[in-house]
Design brief:
The complex is a heterodimer of chains A (314) and B (543). Chain A is of the alpha+beta class and 314 residues long. Chain A is built from 7 helices and 12 strands. Chain A folds into 2 domains: 189 residues, Cupredoxins -  blue copper proteins (Immunoglobulin-like), CATH 2.60.40; 100 residues, Cytochrome c-like domain (Cytochrome Bc1 Complex, Chain D, domain 2), CATH 1.10.760.10. Chain A is 38% helix and 20% strand. Chain A is elongated, with a radius of gyration of 27 Å. The N and C termini of chain A lie far apart (64 Å). The two termini of chain B are 31 Å apart. In chain B, helix 10 runs antiparallel to helix 11. The chains are: A alpha+beta (314), B mainly alpha (543). The interface between A and B is large, with 90 and 93 residues.
Chain lengths: 314, 543
């Protein structure tokens, strides 16, 4: 009964940095609380009604003192702000070599797709020591992907993609929670993160039924949904070619330029009139209601793969 | 209530005895009676919200779901949040103590718009009726934050009825704020300059500004949720072309300043109690007034710190984080100044002072843990966990509720003409302090461990801390029931209060307890500086 944790496990390097900032803050919290409580108790006792302590030269304001307790807390709080922000930026910027995993949140489960095509529900298997980037979206309401042992979370939104990354440094099984209230079974939207030795991970990848990669499934969808009829190499309708588009700037009608990221591709499929590529006619039909979040992720993976092939071919 | 007539030597009846019929209460335009109408109503809502919290704490005693269903649990935390925030905390000090005291403290016979004041109580009751109806018709399960698109497109519960209740009660808040601002500008007694205003009045002024500038944004936001939910206009749901994050911006643009609607009035109460029971003028009067106005203004530009993991840009997060740290500075000034007020005072530990000293300690912890939450990388971990729950309960219960109870005890003799039993008062204050800390301190630990908030079931390793929290909640419940009992009994059995039982400074203490309907026979002409305590110290020591 009394064997319960008071501090969470730590399974990434960033977790150590977050804890360091937290301990600094804790020291400030404890220090100031103790200072105030001790002073209050000390004054309340020393200057209690009827005590003989001298009350001579009491003042009702003291400019230097008041400036001191504005300036000192300001310096301390700016220090905390700086330390916390440096770690935050590190959490935000994923390394370029991170492998990408797609996460789809829905009431009330986490659906996870590895680039190799492997799918899992409420579980995520990853190798230790390698950076992993999650590309996440929601099919319904807002969820939040939270791994306490990694000290990281990110809201998962319908209608757009958010991402997070981590590099676990300790093999083990860790909690996965949904942290944003999402309805009746919010507290059941939990799972496990399995951090494995690379060899075990390879073994796990090869186990079970072999599926095709996301990009391959995407390529099939690209044909079956009729995308290739216009965007393909031998198309009769003039539409932008998608080879090498991903991650590059795209000029739009009206003169603005956007970077072709996940959200841009998603919006172009669901809301094609919102961002028309410069020099093309707005003729693409919307796929709203005809394509699932799942399928969108596959098509995005395919278009990303097109980008890589094209660049490596140059 | 006839006892008052017998004990009051003045020929003119007190405001309590001026009319005995139900009609004389329900149609009163006397600010003091309206304050009492509010006191009775918010007490009712406090215990409704408390009952919901009791169910939450009982359910959380075990990791699995056993006491209620998940749906019920979700409806209970929503009911707890909506009732406590909109129907207890926001009106608590302004509508009860503010209504009662602002005219007395500035030397006026009533608020500027007495009928509007009565109207705002009726609007409050109408909003409350809508919300209670929503709870009785099956409840709402969105959380008090009503996040979209869950609230607008997915929840099958009584979202609109509850939202209409919150929409309506907002106008009560706006009217009260408007009334206070006009009253404080136009109805001060001659000689009551801005720099002689009691800090409680400054606190009401700062609060009123937030109420009239922030609350309309909440009304607009609820209107937009209604448009989407009822008419299917795409505003927040991406499937309709909306943006769910827009809701969060609008909601927190009101709801963060709303935290200061709950907290600034508490500062006002503590500013009155600490000098009185230290027999010292408040330390740094100018800094105290400036700090409250500064908090009111800065409070409007920090809302994005509620959204640091929502997917907003990291640069936006950085700006909101640094601005949040700036709010900490005036809050710190207040804590230091209260502490310095004790220095070389003559401190006594009567019940109101126990609440005030408890407030300073708990508010300090609440405020400092707010800095932990405002720091970007740590917030990523503790956001939406029990750390947040613990933090805001330290501010709202350890802060606002402690100050409200301290104020009720302090002005109880003035309001009712009766003294409460001091020994019971001290016992209750101590019980609340202990129960509160046992309830909410373990939640900081739970939060850093990673337990998300709004969880009906949780992993078994979190159980011990949850059991501690539930045990604390039961002590806290006893602590809240005690004042309900002895304060009510004191109306009949309490010793009759003198004009100024605390030997306190301030115009309200120069009036009979309870005051007459028109407060002042003559509007006070010469006004001394507030907190003129050293002179009075001798009176007290001699007697």
């Amino acid at each position: 009964m009394w064997d319960f944790p008071l501090f969470p496990e730590r399974a990434t390097e960033i977790a150590g940095k977050v804890d360091a900032v937290y301990f600094g803050e804790l020291a400030v919290c404890v220090g100031f609380t103790a200072l105030i409580c001790v002073l209050i108790l000390f004054y309340a006792i020393k200057y209690r009604k009827g005590s003989t302590a001298s009350r001579a030269n009491a003042v009702t304001h003291h400019l230097a003192l008041e400036i001191a307790w504005i300036v000192i807390p300001l310096i301390i709080s700016m220090g905390i702000f700086g330390a916390a922000t440096v770690v935050y930026f590190e959490m935000f910027r994923a390394p370029a070599d991170a492998s990408e995993v797609y996460v789809l949140g829905r009431q009330w489960m986490w659906q996870i797709q590895h680039p190799g095509g492997k799918r899992e529900i409420n579980e995520l298997h990853i190798p230790v020591g390698q950076p992993v980037k999650l590309m996440m979206t929601s099919q319904d309401v807002i969820h939040s992907f939270y791994i306490p042992a990694f000290r990281t979370k990110q809201d998962v939104l319908p209608g757009r993609y958010t991402s997070m990354w981590f590099q676990p440094n300790k093999v083990g099984k860790y909690h996965l929670f949904c942290a944003e209230y999402c309805g009746t079974k919010h507290s059941g939207m939990i799972g496990s993160i399995h951090v494995m030795e690379p060899a075990d991970y390879e073994h796990w990848l090869e186990s079970g039924t072999q599926t095709e990669t996301l990009a391959t499934s995407g390529a099939q969808l690209f044909k079956s949904l009729g995308c290739s009829g216009c965007h393909g190499l031998n198309a009769t309708v003039r539409a932008p070619l998608l080879e090498g588009v991903f991650g590059h700037p795209v000029p739009l009608e009206g003169g603005s330029v956007v970077t072709a990221d996940e959200k841009y591709i998603r919006d172009s499929i669901l809301l094609p009139m919102s961002q028309v590529v410069a020099g093309y006619k707005p003729v693409m039909p919307t796929f709203q209601g005809r394509i699932s979040e799942d399928e969108l992720l596959k098509i995005i993976a395919y278009i990303k793969a097109l980008g890589r092939n094209e660049r490596s071919g140059q | 209530m006839n006892a008052y007539a017998a004990t009051e030597v003045e020929a003119e009846p007190s405001y309590l005895t001026a009319g005995q019929t139900i009609k004389s209460w329900l149609l009163t335009v006397d600010h003091k009676r309206i304050g009492l109408l509010y006191m009775v109503s918010i007490t009712l809502f406090f215990f409704i919200g408390g009952a919901a919290a009791t169910i939450l704490r009982l359910e959380l005693m075990t990791p699995g779901g056993d006491v209620v269903q998940a749906e019920t649990y979700n409806k209970m935390f929503t009911a707890h949040g909506v009732v406590m925030v909109f129907f207890f905390l926001i009106p608590s000090i302004p509508a009860v103590l503010g209504n009662f005291l602002v005219p007395l403290m500035i030397g006026a016979r009533d608020l500027a718009f007495p009928k509007l004041n009565l109207a705002s109580w009726y609007i409050y009751m109408l909003g409350g009726a809508f919300t209670l109806w929503a709870l009785l018709m099956g409840g709402v399960d969105t959380g008090w934050t009503f996040y979209t698109p869950y609230s607008s497109m997915f929840s099958n519960t009584q979202v609109m009825a509850a939202a209409v209740g919150v929409f309506i009660v907002g106008f009560s808040s706006i009217f009260t704020g408007l009334n206070f601002i006009v009253t404080i500008h136009k109805m001060r007694a001659p000689g009551m300059t801005w720099r002689k205003l009691p800090l409680f009045v400054w606190a009401m002024y700062a609060t009123s500004i937030i109420q009239i500038l922030g609350t309309p944004v909440l009304a607009v936001t609820i209107g937009l949720v209604g448009l989407e939910r009822i008419c299917g206009v795409g505003i927040f749901d991406p499937k309709l072309g909306g943006d769910p994050i827009l809701f969060q911006h609008l909601f927190w643009f009101y709801s963060h300043p709303a935290v200061y609607i709950m907290l600034l009035p508490s500062f006002g109460v503590i500013n009155e109690i600490v000098p009185c029971f230290s027999r010292r003028p408040v330390f740094g009067y100018n800094a105290m007034a400036t700090a409250m106005m500064g908090i009111a203004v800065l409070g409007f530009v920090v809302w994005g710190h509620h959204m640091l993991v929502s997917g907003q840009s990291m640069y936006a997060g950085m700006v909101f984080s640094v601005l949040s740290y700036l709010v900490a500075i005036p809050s710190g000034v207040k804590v230091f100044n209260w502490t310095a007020t004790l220095y070389k005072g003559s401190v006594s530990g009567d019940t109101p002072m126990l609440y005030a000293l408890g407030f300073i300690g708990l508010f300090t912890i609440g405020g400092l843990t707010g800095l932990v939450l405002a720091s970007l990388s740590v917030d990523v971990h503790v956001h939406d966990t029990y750390f947040v729950v613990a933090h805001f309960h330290y501010i709202m219960v350890g802060g606002a509720v402690m100050a409200y109870l301290g104020g009720i005890h302090f002005w109880w003799p003035k309001i009712t003409g009766r003294m409460y039993p001091e020994i019971w008062g001290k016992l209750a204050a101590l019980t609340i302090f202990i129960g509160f800390n046992l309830t909410f301190f373990p939640q900081f630990v739970l939060g850093y461990l990673g337990m998300p908030r709004r969880y009906y079931e949780y992993p078994p390793e979190f159980q011990v801390l949850n059991v501690m929290s539930t045990a604390g909640a039961s002590i806290l419940a006893v602590g809240y029931l005690l004042p309900l009992g002895y304060l009510l009994l004191s109306l009949w059995y309490g010793p009759v209060a003198s004009r100024n039982p605390w030997n306190a400074a301030g115009l309200e203490w120069e009036l009979p307890s309870p005051p007459t309907t028109h407060n002042f026979d003559e509007i006070p002409a010469a006004v001394e500086r507030p907190y003129d305590y050293p002179l009075r110290e001798h009176d007290r020591v001699d007697s």
